[in-house]
Structure formats: C-alpha cells, structure tokens
Amino acid sequence: MTVNLYQNSPDAKGRDYREDELFLTIENLRSELLEVAQERSLSDHTVLELSQRLDGYIVMAQNLMMESLRSRKNAAAPYGKNTKSQRIRNKAALQQ
Questions:
Q1: 78, 57, 81, 77: which is closest to 69 by C-alpha?
Q2: What are phi and psi of 23, to 5 degrees?
Q3: How far is CA 78 from CA 47, 56, 82, 83, in A?
Q4: 8-12, 24-28, 29-33, 37-41: segment of lowest average pLDDT
Q5: Confidence band of 13 (pLDDT split at 50, 70, 90)
Q6: Can you tell me the distance from the alpha carbon of 20 to that of 76, in angstroms, rounded to the nearest whole number?
Q7: Residue 24 pLDDT > 60, yes or no?
Q8: Which of 17, 51, 60, 65 has the fewest beta carbons closer than 10 A?
C-alpha cells in the first residue's frame, strides 16, 4: 500500500513513481538492516552504515510528507479568509 502525497498535483504520476521508489528503498533497507543486525553486533560497521542510510531515507520521506501537507493546507485555504498576517494588518489599520 502506498500513500499518495501529491493527490492534486499536475505531475502526480512522476511524483507517485518517485514516492513509490522511496518507500520501496526504505522497506528494502529496513529488511536488510534487520537481517544484518541479527547476524552481527549492533555496533558493527555494516549495521551502523545501513542504519544511517535508512535514517536518511526516512528523513526524506518525512520531508516529502510535510511538504505535501503544507501545500494541501495552502491550497485548501479559502480565498475569502484572511491569513494571520492579514488579520494583524487589518487590525492595525482599524486602530489608526
């Protein structure tokens, strides 16, 4: 099962492919790390290297998810509503 991070994006197919590839890479590294960690010490160089690589890919996936959430939040904001900075400016203008 894949989570679609870019549902309404014009280049969703390309992003879906990259997203699928990223999650597949994470899953493959996770499996490899579990196998190697069962055979070796947790402080073994190979275990540490795999763990660091996996961490890097997880951070990439988290950044993609956060970017997607931000863009969806911005796209969902109705045009009629004021942003916080607009409300502050409006309040300041009324006080003058």
A1: 77
A2: -70, -30
A3: 49, 35, 9, 10
A4: 8-12
A5: low
A6: 25
A7: yes
A8: 17
- Which residues, including other chains, have CB under 8 Å from residue 33's CB and lie 6 or more apart? 47, 50, 51, 54
Q: Are 46 and 36 in contact (CB under 8 A)?
A: yes
Q: How far is the C-alpha of 58 from the C-alpha of 72, rounded, in Å?
A: 21
Q: What is the DSSP string of 76-89?
A: HS-TTSPPHHHHHH
36: three-class secondary structure by DSSP:
helix
Question: Do 34 and 55 touch, CB atoms closer than 8 A?
Answer: no
* Tokens 């196998």 belong to residue: 35
Is the confidence at residue 49, as pLDDT, over 80?
A: yes
Closest of 8, 3, 47 to residue 29, by C-alpha: 47
